[in-house]
Amino acid sequence: MINTKVLKSVNNITELAVDTQGKRVTDRFDEVFKEIAKKAQIQGFRPGKAPEELVKKQYTKLAEEEVIKSLVPDIYDEVIKIEKIDAIELPQISEVKLTQDSLSFKVKVEVKPKIEIKKYKGLKVTLEKIEVNKEDIDKYVDSIKKQKKIEGEIDDKIARSMGYFSVEDLKSSIEKELYLQKEHSRFQAIRVQIVKQLKEGCNFDLPESLVNRRYHELLEGFKRELAEHYGFGKDEVAKKEAEVKDKLLNDAREEVWIFLVFEEIAKLEKMKPEQNFIQGVFDFILQEANWEKK
Fold first, then answer.
1. 3-state class (DSSP) for residue 74
2. Residues 82-121: pLDDT tens digits?
3. Is residue 116 part of a domain?
């Protein structure tokens, strides 16, 4: 039988006291000593032939180490199931005490926060109208002229050098590209609207281990891009790293928040666990939202 007691549960850190006594411990000691006896090197006896008393006397410390090594992980796994603990990090085990018939220890582990979502269906989505005007197109044309060092106006000949039949075809292509850019920006704005509404009344402490892990993933990706794509040296990379540290940390916090909340919504809606479940949840929220055009 396993006895557990929750000592503390604060800021996603749960501490427990665990102990078990009796047959489980004694049986494990017997199994360990039998394995040790097969290879035990005791003067005057061939391996496997030494008396049990001598084996236990000479190899007590090794046996205790093996019992702890095998029992603690097994008991810990059972404890988190009994206590319904959703651990997100490896546990810290301390104060391990072992006798011939009892084992006790303390556990400190980071757990997923309890998340209560006030509302995720019927959220309000405002759809902004997309317009590409002459000013937008002219500004884009000016950027092309500056990039290609073109003086004066772009005519059909210059348009053809860029793969277009005429200036009008070029401007038509620019209009389509700008529309797609604005459409993408509008979609990102919708995402911001959704997250902002989900955050209302949904407060919980972010697990620092998840935030730190994601931050370092973003940081390593950023540093790798600078080095591989832009040829930055170590000193330049270090300088840029200092400049973006706060932004990347905020990005990590936002991504972890979205991951945990969307994971909870997926559970509530009994969605099948998929690698890209966040997009699936986002699609579901949009389907259930109240839309209005502006």
1. helix
2. 999 999 999 999 999 999 999 999 999 999 999 999 999 9
3. no
